[in-house]
User: Which sequence fits this backbone?
C-alpha cells in the first residue's frame, strides 16, 4: 500500500552530505551498513514519526550492505524512494533491492570510479604537469569537483527512479560493466606506452660499429620495456601479493641503480 511521499530534495542532499562525512563508519560484520544508516537517519526520522517504526527501519538499514562508495548513493536513494512510497511494509523489499544491486553496481563503480576515469584524467593532468603546463592541476580539480557533484546528485536520481532502476537498467548493467572493463583495459594499455618512460642505455661495439640495444628493441616492438616493467609490477602485486608501498620503494631503488650504471634511462 503506497503512501504520500514526504522527502524533499533538501532532505536527500542532506543525506548525501552525511554520506560523504560518515563513509569511514565501516566494520567487517555489516561493512557499509553503519555509514548508510548515518546517512539516511534524518530521512527516516521524517518518514516515521512513530519510534517503533523508526527502530524497525533503522535495524533494516543495519543489515549487511557493501558496494562501491562512490556509486552507493544511487542505490541508497532508490531504496529511500521505495520506502518513502511503501512505508514500513516495504522493509523487506528495500533490503532485497539493496542486496540485488550492490553486486552489479559495485562492478560498474570499481571500473569507472576507481580505474577508468581517475586513470584517464590523472594521466592527462600528470602529462601536462610533466610538460610544465599548470592547466593539469585545474583539470584534476575540475574532475574532482564534477565527480563530487555527481555523487551528491545520485541520491536524487535514485530516489526519483526507485524500483524502476531494475526494470529500466537491469539487463544493461552486465553489458555496461563488461564494456567499461574493455574500455578501461584499452586506456590503461595505451597509457603504458605513452606515460611510462623506460629505455636502456646498453650498447655493444664491434670495431667501428656501435649497436644500441634500445634501437634493436624498438625495431622488434616499440615500448616493449615499459610494457615488460608494468607486467612485472602487476605480477608481483597480483600473484605474489606484494604491497604497493614495497613496489614503489623497489622502483625507486631500481631506478637509482639503473641510472647510475647506465643500464636504464628514463
Assistant:
Amino acid at each position: 500500500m503506497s503512501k504520500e511521499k514526504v522527502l524533499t530534495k533538501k532532505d536527500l542532499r542532506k543525506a548525501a552530505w552525511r554520506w560523504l562525512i560518515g563513509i569511514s563508519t565501516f566494520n567487517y560484520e555489516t561493512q557499509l551498513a553503519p555509514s548508510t544508516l548515518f546517512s539516511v537517519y534524518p530521512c527516516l526520522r521524517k518518514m516515521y514519526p512513530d519510534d517503533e517504526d523508526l527502530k524497525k527501519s533503522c535495524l533494516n538499514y543495519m543489515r549487511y550492505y557493501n558496494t562501491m562508495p562512490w556509486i552507493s548513493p544511487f542505490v541508497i536513494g532508490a531504496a529511500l524512494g521505495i520506502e518513502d512510497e511503501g512505508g514500513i511494509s516495504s522493509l523487506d523489499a528495500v533490503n532485497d533491492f539493496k542486496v540485488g544491486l550492490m553486486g552489479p553496481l559495485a562492478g560498474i563503480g570499481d571500473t569507472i570510479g576507481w580505474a577508468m576515469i581517475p586513470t584517464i584524467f590523472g594521466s592527462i593532468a600528470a602529462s601536462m604537469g610533466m610538460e610544465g603546463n599548470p592547466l593539469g592541476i585545474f583539470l584534476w580539480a575540475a574532475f574532482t569537483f564534477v565527480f563530487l557533484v555527481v555523487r551528491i546528485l545520485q541520491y536524487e536520481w535514485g530516489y526519483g527512479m526507485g524500483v524502476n532502476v531494475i526494470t529500466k537498467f537491469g539487463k544493461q548493467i552486465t553489458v555496461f560493466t563488461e564494456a567499461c572493463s574493455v574500455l578501461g583495459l584499452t586506456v590503461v594499455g595505451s597509457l603504458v606506452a605513452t606515460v611510462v618512460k623506460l629505455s636502456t642505455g646498453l650498447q655493444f661495439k664491434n670495431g667501428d660499429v656501435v649497436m644500441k640495444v634500445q634501437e634493436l628493441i624498438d625495431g622488434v616492438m616499440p615500448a616493449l620495456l615499459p610494457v615488460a616493467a608494468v607486467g612485472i609490477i602487476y605480477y608481483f602485486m597480483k600473484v605474489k601479493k606484494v604491497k604497493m608501498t614495497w613496489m614503489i620503494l623497489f622502483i625507486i631503488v631500481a631506478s637509482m641503480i639503473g641510472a647510475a650504471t647506465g643500464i636504464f634511462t628514463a
User: Anything to note?
Assistant: The chain has two domains: 7-189, 196-263. Residues 196-263 form one domain. The chain has a mean pLDDT of 83.
